[in-house]
Design goal:
With 286 residues, the protein is of the alpha+beta class. It has 2 domains: 2-65, SH3 type barrels (Roll); 68-241, no CATH class. The protein contains 9 helices and 6 strands; from the N terminus they run H-E-E-E-E-E-E-H-H-H-H-H-H-H-H. It has helices at 2-8, 67-95, 100-154, 160-193, 196-208, 214-217, 229-249, 251-258, 262-285; strands spanning 12-15, 20-29, 35-41, 47-51, 55-58, 61-64. Strands 4-3-2-1-6-5 form a 6-stranded mixed beta sheet. Helix 2 packs antiparallel against helix 3 (100-154) and helix 4 packs antiparallel against helix 9. The radius of gyration is 24 Å and the shape is elongated. It starts with a helix and ends with a helix.
């Protein structure tokens, strides 16, 4: 418990896209002593308790992962595993017709699972569209502040250094919004393209282009559903065990997968520090 306090307390909190949230002032635990949430001082917004499973620590910062991002990552993983299994069953039958009856029973199981995941996909995509609408409203508000600052500067109501500082901070917020919007669109594309038909097409393409490595395939939209026939024979058991292990890890495993997005946050923090330095230079010059 003391290690967790040292890890969180006193650190600044930002979301995955670099927007400042507040500062950690404490930790909330349940009756068994397990961490439930982290208390964050959000200034005039009061104290907010952020769920522990949605937090990552990076250096002097605590990174908050939106719930929709965790849910989307989990769904992508589950669909990937279901599509892998369906593809594997098809290839087993094509190689040994005598196993058709056994494979069909398992195939129906995964088809039902895929149907359920399809319903979850629609719910997640709807939430993502709602988030996009919220970001559009926020973007319009920020641009309104930026325009009004320009109007005040032109009418000599504010100085040039104040105008430039407003520009720096509002443009930074717009960059955060654009980054989140871009990721939302990317996730929607991945979710909509994860289908059995695309997996079949992928299998055909792999047979013609067997030189593509599994590492490169993992970077494509259907990374986990694209395995060629040789890899299926040699690696499918290991891959499935890894997927099952990830499922058992729950949100902690998903958080680890999302750590690849953390460099974007580091860049945002570096940009903010650069903006602050520029602001100080402007102020000093005046």
């Amino acid at each position: 418990m003391s290690e967790l306090k040292l890890e969180f307390v006193g650190k600044k909190v930002k979301d995955m896209y670099g927007t400042y949230i507040g500062k950690v002032i404490g930790i909330i635990t349940d009756i068994e002593g397990s961490v439930e949430s982290v208390s964050v001082d959000c200034g005039s917004g009061g104290i907010k308790n952020l769920p522990y499973e949605q937090l990552l620590v990076q250096g002097d910062y605590v990174i908050f992962i939106p719930r929709w991002r965790l849910d989307a990552q989990k769904l992508l993983r589950e669909k990937s595993l279901a599509l892998k299994r369906i593809k594997a069953l098809r290839e087993i039958v094509s190689e040994n017709d005598s196993m058709k009856d056994d494979a069909e029973l398992v195939y129906l199981k995964y088809e039902k699972r895929l149907d359920k995941l399809g319903e979850n996909t629609k719910e997640i995509i709807e939430k993502l569209h709602q988030r996009t609408s919220e970001l559009d409203i926020e973007s319009r508000r920020i641009k309104s502040v930026l325009f009004d600052a320009k109007l005040q500067y032109k009418s000599n109501e504010i100085t040039e250094d104040v105008h430039q500082q407003i520009n720096l901070h509002t443009n930074e917020l717009i960059d955060h919004i654009n980054l989140e919007n871009s990721e939302i669109k990317n996730i929607i594309n991945k979710l909509t393209q994860q289908t059995v038909d695309n997996t079949t097409v992928s299998s055909t393409n792999e047979a013609a282009e067997n030189t593509m490595s599994l590492h490169n395939e993992d970077k494509e939209t259907l990374e986990n559903s694209q395995i060629n026939e040789e890899e299926l024979g040699n690696n499918s058991l290991d891959d499935n065990n890894q997927e099952l292990q990830k499922e058992e890890e729950g949100d902690e495993g998903i958080k680890k997968e999302l750590e690849d997005s953390v460099p974007d946050i580091s860049n945002a923090i570096e940009n903010e520090n650069e903006h602050n330095e520029i602001s100080q230079i402007i102020t000093s010059a005046n």
